[in-house]
Amino acid sequence: MKQVVIIGGGLAGSEAAWQIAKRNINVSLYEMRPTVETGAHVTADLGELVCSNSLGSNLPDRASGVLKTELRRMGSLLMECADQTAIPAGGALAVDRQAFSQLITKRIKENPKIEVIHQEITEIPIGPTIIASGPLTSTKLANSIAEVSGKEHLYFFDAISPIVSFESINMNIAFFGSRYNKGELKEGDYINCPLNQDQYDEFVNDIKRAERITLHSFESAIESGVKAGADKFFEGCLPIEIIAQRGHDTLAYGPMRPVGLIDPQTNRRAHAIVQLRRDNIAGTLYNMVGFQTNLKFPEQKRVFQSIPGLKNAEFVRYGQMHRNTFISAPQLLKTTMQFRCREDLFFAGQITGVEGYVGNFATGLLAGWNSARLLNGKELITLPNTTILGSLCHYVTHANLADFQPMKANFGLLPPLEPNAGKKMSKRDRAKAYAERAITDLETYLSNII
Fold it and tell me: In 59-196, which residue ranges form alpha helices assigned H by DSSP?
């Protein structure tokens, strides 16, 4: 009987399981929660979103939007679930995080070819296997991966943002609005808390002085096969206090940039803006955008309640930091997501060094396809690197390990466009051309293999 074992019931593991089952192969999907907790998850649902509830841009001329188009074309379960549980977010695709993970869990558990087993796997099994254990891989499994790979792991510290209740936000101060009013803005997409110069200066000084949480021993310990370096943060998800330490104005030019927003109270642009994004369909919860943090919980309450409009904010979830683990993919993986030293072992998701929710389950889709094709005696798939998913897989398997950092989908990973008869293209036209080429090349490739 053909069967694949998948370790990890997150985004990548769930997508991989679905793709394999679609190809009439049995799947044993192991998820250690709730038997073993991660310190960041709060449910036992498959595909739980730990950080933001946004899956990034949904626009057809943005790299993240093109990746979503590719995945819809390739029959992604998680894209289908995301579209069905979407909530207003301007030009982005945001989901009700609870409804999203519950729908994934329902679809997976209803599939007769998939058996979900809530049990920790501490050693890599013999036989066809996909490791999609994510950035919070348990210590025992991480050590097993280190043994089979013979290489050190890398890691960086990641942080999540606080969530506040809508009813606790003072809407006499805060206002609805999207930067430059991009996308079809509906009331409730984003809430903005404006700060003037003095308020911003006080906030920055306060956050620099605020006390941080001491990292847990499992995060700060130098474990077997894991590199040290507690100050190694992922640049795409820096804690708000770390950004503030880099310069007084870095927040105003970063997550608190006020561009494209007019405060209706003053009819002027504020000096800085704290933006909150709807976190559920009901619109009762809002996520503080870009406010990943490792401040102590009382300090978060004190500092963030100093923001205009959040004086009485009720924190449903405080921000926190955790260690994200990923392998030396350029040394260990092929672009098929296949382990170089063992043909029936695949890796998928954030543990490969792919960053971003959609990129994570996209690699799960590819690993699922390829493990099924391996069992069915078919040639494995290497997507064209002119596609977003193909370029992402090419990057994580070919990057220079010396400065290897988790990577999100972006047009910078793609090969250059053909010369346009000497004409200089605008940024928008170039993005459109990249997008059109990606979808065309994907269609051509798929038509030849399916």
Answer: 63-73, 77-84, 97-110, 139-149
Q: Write phi, then psi, for 78 (nearest 5 degrees).
A: -70, -30
Considering only CA atoms, give the Rg of the chain: 22
Q: 297 pairs with which residues across the strands? A: none
User: Is residue 35 classed as helix, strand or coil in its secondary structure?
Assistant: coil
pLDDT digits (tens, 9 = 90+) for 143-201: 888 888 776 666 667 778 898 989 899 999 999 988 766 544 445 579 999 999 999 99
Q: What is the number of other CB atoms lying within 10 angstroms of the CB of residue 203?
A: 21
Calculate ∠ Cα 154-157-162, nearest 5°. 155
Strands (E), 118-180: 129-131, 154-160, 163-165, 175-176
Place of tokens 């004086």: 311
**Tokens 């494209």 sit on residue:** 260
Domains and their CATH numbers in the chain: 3-153+327-449 (3.50.50.60), 160-323 (2.40.30.260)
From 215, 410, 169, select the one nearest 324 (Cα to Cα): 215
Residue 25's DSSP bridge partners are none
**pLDDT tens per residue across span 314-355:** 998 888 877 777 888 999 999 999 999 999 999 999 899 898
pTM as predicted: 0.74
